[in-house]
Amino acid sequence: MPLGQLILASGEASSDMRYAAGFSTPDEFIWFSAGSLRGVVMSALEYDRARCSAASGVQVFSEEEWGGPDRLTMLGNIAAKYELAGFSVPGDFPLRWADRLRNAGLVVKAEEGPFFPEREVKSEEEAEKITRSLRQAEAGCRRAFAVLRETEIARDKTLLWRGEPLTSEILRFEIDSTMMKAGMLATGTICAGGEQGSRPHDQGSGVLRADSPIVMDIFPRSAATGYWGDLTRTVVRGVPSDIVKKAYDAVLDARETAKKKLAAGVIPSAVHDEAVRVLERYGFHTGRGEKGDYGFFHGLGHGVGLDIHEAPRLSRRCDDPLKPGAVVTVEPGLYYPEWGGIRLEDMVYIDPAGAPRCLTRIEDFLVL
Amino acid sequence: MPLGQLILASGEASSDMRYAAGFSTPDEFIWFSAGSLRGVVMSALEYDRARCSAASGVQVFSEEEWGGPDRLTMLGNIAAKYELAGFSVPGDFPLRWADRLRNAGLVVKAEEGPFFPEREVKSEEEAEKITRSLRQAEAGCRRAFAVLRETEIARDKTLLWRGEPLTSEILRFEIDSTMMKAGMLATGTICAGGEQGSRPHDQGSGVLRADSPIVMDIFPRSAATGYWGDLTRTVVRGVPSDIVKKAYDAVLDARETAKKKLAAGVIPSAVHDEAVRVLERYGFHTGRGEKGDYGFFHGLGHGVGLDIHEAPRLSRRCDDPLKPGAVVTVEPGLYYPEWGGIRLEDMVYIDPAGAPRCLTRIEDFLVL
Questions:
Q1: What is the pLDDT of residues A292-351, one digit of tens each?
Q2: What is the pLDDT of residue A44?
Q3: CB distance A91–B96 less than 8 Å?
């Protein structure tokens, strides 16, 4: 007997579910396939929404139709009706339910790779959705530029905006609220100044200062489409030090050099290594010191779609050739606890013909 | 050989992880316990953050210390070092990793119930964190009241604010941005007017109108603490119909009656049933018609903590007596496609001595 496919998740927690069902919910539900049939099984609370917004070709069932609400009963009935030995499931399928189904005599097989490999290959329509989210990231970033340009510099180098010290929190709010007005969700925007910017995942907090780089990594998700945009710019209000200027030039050169290498068939690790070589030509090396890591110690980029981080990865360890339809970030960075961080991030679409298309449309500069 | 405990998740995706580790990350990492030892294993990118913010008693390891970054190697080394037969894991543990560990000869046992049953029992300190998030929900709600009071009513009953039609989207932005300024995350705020309010999960969209109920369900999460607040109020700008006034009185009576029943030892389903009886006394019955469900067709309330929906549930099906330390919502509602919805939600803490304490501090009224 063949296997069907099964996802058990909320659309909010699982992008595979959102991709398969075509809509998102806060609560878990069942998506399954059996041969060419695709279906979702909805509680009364979500049934009407599902009918309105399910992806084309997805049949919407009520729990009653499968003997619900008991989930084991429903899944057993689905397997029996379509004569399935069990289900192939995503790697993050909940173990509790896998064991319950196995105890009930069904096969449950976790996919080793991605559940929907086709998610890596974006259609022009998907690239357009990503681009629309990226445009909102750019709008948020321009708002930050405007706020920073309005700041005055106090004698102790504190940035003052509208008479008050400008903090990471205030700058983040200005970026996020700009994007939210356009229907975006923003939960992790980074505005990290000075030494905080030397930790790539530090969101930033407290007062921002002149003459020191401010890393702004902006990645909103469209509430309507679920697709993300991703953008990073680093700026200095005031006068950057020579080392910061040199690091900026190096990172910009690394990004542009890497972008030019991208095309279908290219090996991601080769592009990553090329960016490393550019940074090293400027004299920036990577290592671990007393204060932690320094240099360039993360991957060059990652795929973006319904997940903010998805395949393909542009990293040292990834040797699968890039496919037409990939959307990736290119985001080299340099991080030194002594002066902070520089990261510059664009997005590139490898179009269906295999040619690279830069999706990002915002200027590059260090000083404002 | 004994079992250890294991979580493999990001703090963002798993509240068990956030509870156990004491901090949150966008990327997956390992938390484990072995006897009285508790540890996390961090990549270079997250190591410093973890050192700064791990919960007391949690030891921070680097991946190198366990032979990483290969995860199977690290987990095998942990099991060997502490002489563990394997691990007990949460029910949502990823099947892919469970099968890999089992294939490597380790026991992996999914907990049938909650992984940390103690999460249901909130300390005064946790109740205080929840209350602080609730205060921000109240601030957002007061902002909505203020906006609605400023509206004018056009001849076609459209609400006009600052000269433009007031939409669900604009009202939501006013609520969310008020909360965001205070460091809250808000991603699902409901502002549903008229017929949209008759679908409890409808977020609301488009123009809001006078004389018709507007359901506002506001549930922000503190970015800093991870704890949620949850609040619902329903108001009418203009003149409500008699049936809406009666439904409002019924729901308010049901909520207050249910709140008075709450205490340690009380059976949740009995409280739910009591709320149903109050609504029925007002003549509001529940059923399914041509246009979908009507009446009161969801649970009376749910626990709130690091998850917005967690144990205990106040529903028809829950017969475990309430424990001291529970934090629950009490949110009866009435929903009729003909005129919309009314939902009124407060939060109650069953304190360590077993007595109920209403956490919500915002007025109740229908008309503004």
A1: 889 999 999 999 999 999 999 999 989 999 999 999 999 999 999 999 999 999 999 999
A2: 80
A3: yes
CB contact under 8 A, B96 and A112: yes
Cβ within 8 Å, pair B45-A93? no
Residue B49 is nearest to which of A92, A199, A298, comparing CB atoms? A199
Q: Look at residue A364 and tell me if it is in a domain.
A: no
Long-range contacts (CB closer than 8 Å, 24 or more residues apart) made by A272-275: A272/A299, A272/A300, A272/A314, A272/A315, A272/A316, A272/A318, A273/A316, A275/A300, A275/A330, A275/A332
Q: Is residue B368 part of a domain?
A: no
Three-class HEC string of A4-42: EEEEEECCCCCHHHHHHHCCCCCCCEEEEEECCEEEEEE
Probe site for chain A from B92, B291, B317 (most A CB atoms < 10 A): B92
> What are the angstrom distances between the C-alpha of A147 and each of A150, A154, B97, B183?
5, 16, 46, 19
Which residues on B lie below 8 Å from A292 (Cβ)?
47-48
B49, B89, B181: residue with CB nearest A173: B181
Please give the average per-residue pLDDT across A261-284, as a whole number. Answer: 97
Q: What are B43's two structure tokens? A: 């990549």
Query: pLDDT of A169-216, one tens digit each?
Result: 999 999 999 999 999 998 889 999 999 999 988 899 999 999 999 999
Q: Do A125 and A111 belong together in one domain?
A: no
Pair (B176, B90) in one structural domain: no
Torsion of CA A142, A147, A152, A157, to 10 degrees: -80
What pTM was computed for the model? 0.89
Inform me whether the C-beta atom of residue A337 falls under 8 Å from chain B C-beta atoms.
Answer: no
Q: Are residues B130 and B202 in the same domain?
A: yes
Give me the residue from A177, A183, A297 closest to B180, CB to CB: A177
The verdict on a CB contact (< 8 Å) between A98 and B96 is: no
Q: At which of B115, B141, B164 does a domain end? A: B115
- Dump pLDDT digits (tens) for B152-168: 999 999 999 999 999 99
3-state SS string over A110-135? Answer: ECCCCCCHHHHCCCHHHHHHHHHHHH
Instruction: Assess: ipTM above 0.90.
Output: no
E strands in A90-206: 107-110, 152-153, 159-161, 164-165, 184-185, 190-193
Same domain, A165 and A192: yes
> pLDDT tens, A75-124?
999 999 999 999 999 999 999 999 999 999 999 999 999 999 999 999 99
Is A195 in the B-facing interface, judged by CB distances under 8 Å?
no
Q: For residue B334, which of B216, B235, B197 has the smallest C-alpha distance?
A: B197
- Peptide bond before residue A114 is cis, with ω within 30 degrees of 0: no
What band does A232 get if pLDDT is binned at 50, 70 and 90?
very high
The number of domains in chain A is 2
Separation in Å, CA of A350 to nearest CA in chain B:
26
Inter-chain contact B91–A94, Cβ cutoff 8 Å? yes
What's the CATH number where A60 sits? 3.40.350.10
Domain housing A84: 3-115
What is the pLDDT, as a whole number, of residue B98? 98
User: A interface mutation test: which of B10, B14, B96 has the most A CBs within 10 A?
Assistant: B96
State the nearest Cα–Cα gap between A185 and chain B, in angstroms. Answer: 7
Instruction: Note whether B194 and B249 are same-domain residues.
Output: yes
pLDDT category, B95, cuts 50, 70, 90? very high
User: How far off is chain A from B93, nearest CA to CA, in Å?
Assistant: 5
In angstroms, the CA A207 to CA B195 distance is 46
Nearest C-alpha of chain B: how many angstroms from A204? 12
pLDDT beyond 80 at B45: no
Which residue of A lies nearest to B222 if distances are taken between CA atoms? A187
Q: Are A99 and A129 in the same domain?
A: no
